[in-house]
Amino acid sequence: MKKNNIFPAFLTVFSALVLSSCQFDAPIRELADAKAAITNAVRYGAETYAPDELEKAKNLIMESHTSVKDEKKDEAVKLAVEAKVSADAAYTKSLPLITEAAIRNTEALISEAADANAEEYAADPLKNANDRLLESKNHFAASDFLQAYSKADEAAESALLAKTGSLEKITDLEIRLETVNTEIKRITDNNGEKYASEDLKNAGSASDEAGKLLEAEKLKAALPLIMEAEAAIDKAGNKEKEYAAVMKTADSINNAKEILKQAENALADEYAPEEYLAATELLRKAENEFDAGNSGQSEQYSAASNQKAVEAWNIALQGKPEFQKQIDDVKNRYKFLEENDGNTLAPDEMKSASVNIAAADKYLSGNNLKDCRTALRDAENDLATVESKNIRLSSMQKINSAKKEYSALDTADNRLKYKKDLDSASSWISKAESSHSSENYNDAELAANNALLQIDQIKISISQNRPAEYMSGNIYTVKYNPKDRDCLWKIAARVYKRADLWPLIYAANRDKIKDPDLIFPGQKFTIPPVPEKEDSGKNSTDNTVNKDMLAPSGKEDEMISGENSADTGIVPEDKNANSGIIDENQ
Fold first, then answer.
1. Residue 524, helix vs strand vs coil
2. Distance between CA atoms of 581 and 577, rounded to whole angstroms?
3. Nearest to residue 331, comparing CAs of 375, 266, 369, 273?
């Protein structure tokens, strides 16, 4: 406990008395006793608790000093004795009061040490402080104030040591608290509010309160709050791990969906249906397990679905070269139309076809065969519209095609076997060229179609090594091909080279076709000939089929298989059947 210094002026006085003692017999002992009594009174708080008595003692000793200077020995002795008496009175008055204050101060220090968790961090100094305090109180109760003051002073020193030692731990607690706050922020930034909002709230609240207590050096109260915050953040961390596992599973499912979608875009459902369906079923199981909370099982199903989807995708992509060939064919059609006034006759359709061709290229490069096929079909429809608007080009294309195929067949050997048929095909070609020159493009196209039909029949006869006959009531068997499903307009495009002549087939097979939009694999349709229009006007572009063209051709006969029947879809009937192609002489 702090010791107070003697009143400074008294030192000067006492020094002067010592110097003057050589001149006469000064009351040195009385003055020394008075000085010691004043010092003792000051030490034990007389300045605070007995100021009047202390002040009187100081004044008296000053007066004694004056008497010494005046060589009034008796008066000096009397004043020095009175000063001592007054100082002793100050001491007697202040000692119990300062002791009581010392006890209170020590109790406060012990309380602060306890708040700083000295019971755990500085147990020995705290115990010593409490023991000395108890002794102080016992002495005080016995009015042994001096001993009580001494023990209170010892207790205060021990309490201060306990507090100081405990506060050395505050840095460790602050580090723990900072770790909690760092975790709170990290988990919150990682969508923690979705899965651990209550734990984060509890951790934050406990952390804030603990921080305030640490600032107030109340480590004992802060520690359980820090532990509470740590427990809450640990729970949040565990939930974060669980959430991460769930999200990983969800990502696996989403990845499986994406791969399956890519496989679907590659037409895996058509080209690899078994693998595609297996991948779809595995994905369904993965989703069901995920919904049931079985993340591990869900991930296994997702991985298996990915594997099957990739298999399906790889199988489906084997069809890319065929799609590339179709794109090249459409590009060639587009180029031909572009070079033959297509942009003038049908600018909108040509522009649309160009866009669709570019889209087909893009989809194919991205392995999206599904959208590539759609874009191709749209482009083909655009070009078909352009071609239908330009019957001149259409008829010229068919004439050139007939001439090319005729030239390939017109050999010496074939002339010996199929002269009549070759001459008939040649006659139709000549008639088509004549009609085209006269700008009767519809007649030219019809004649070219008949020439192509005649040429097809010659090819069939050659492949079967039998004499050729004109086609009459030829049979077409509807094919099953999931890649390119049959319909009436496709059949017409194959056999007539004109899709718009599909009503001829429909009219000839009304007994088998209830709905022209609905035909079935294995159905057998009679293929009637293309009738020649007698009154086609010049520059006519009418592509419609008249009522005579829709007339039924008669009862279907028995199908005769042919080696190359799959190429055209047509199988000729009995060789004795009447001609179905309209001869130029009819």
1. strand
2. 12
3. 375
Reduced to 3 states, what is the DSSP secondary structure of residue 512? Answer: coil
The Cα–Cα gap between 275 and 273 comes to 6
- Which pTM value belongs to this model? 0.50
Q: Which CA distances in Å does 193 have to 200, 209, 339? A: 8, 21, 66
Residue 491's nearest CA partner among 463, 462, 459, 516 is: 516
The Cα–Cα gap between 123 and 471 comes to 118
Instruction: Return the SS3 of 526.
Output: strand
* 475 SS3 class: strand
What is the three-class DSSP state of 527? strand
Mean pLDDT in the chain? 84
The H or E element containing residue 126 is: helix 123-141
What does the alpha-carbon distance between residue 91 and residue 56 come to, in Å, rounded to a whole number?
13
For residue 167, give both structure tokens: 């506060």
Pull the structure tokens for residue 28. 């040195």
User: Which residues does 410 contact at the CB level (< 8 Å), separation at least 6?
Assistant: 422, 426
Q: What is the CA radius of gyration of the chain?
A: 59
- The confidence score (pLDDT) of residue 340 equals 81
Which helix (H) or strand (E) segment holds residue 474: the answer is: strand 474-477
State CA 278 to chain mean position distance.
27
| 298 touches 254 (CB < 8 A) | no
Q: Which helix (H) or strand (E) holds 146?
A: helix 145-167
What CA–CA distance (Å, rounded) separates 361 from 478? 31
pLDDT per residue as tens digits for the range 175-231:
999 999 999 999 999 999 999 999 999 999 999 999 999 999 999 999 999 999 999
Per-residue burial over 2-21, b = 16 or more CB atoms within 10 Å of its CB, e = otherwise: eeeebbeebeebbeebeeee
Contact 466, 482 (CB under 8 A): no
Alpha helices in 5-50 (DSSP H): 8-20, 28-43, 46-49
Which residues are bridge partners to 524 per DSSP? 477
- Rounded to whole angstroms, the Cα distance separating 254 from 277 reads 17
Task: Please give the structure tokens belonging to residue 282.
Answer: 């595995």
List the one residue out of 419, 423, 548, 525 whose CA is nearest residue 476. Answer: 525
**Cα(153)–Cα(135) distance, integer angstroms:** 11
Structure tokens at 46: 């007389």
Q: What is the pLDDT of residues 69-103, one digit of tens each?
A: 988 999 999 999 999 999 999 999 999 999 999 99
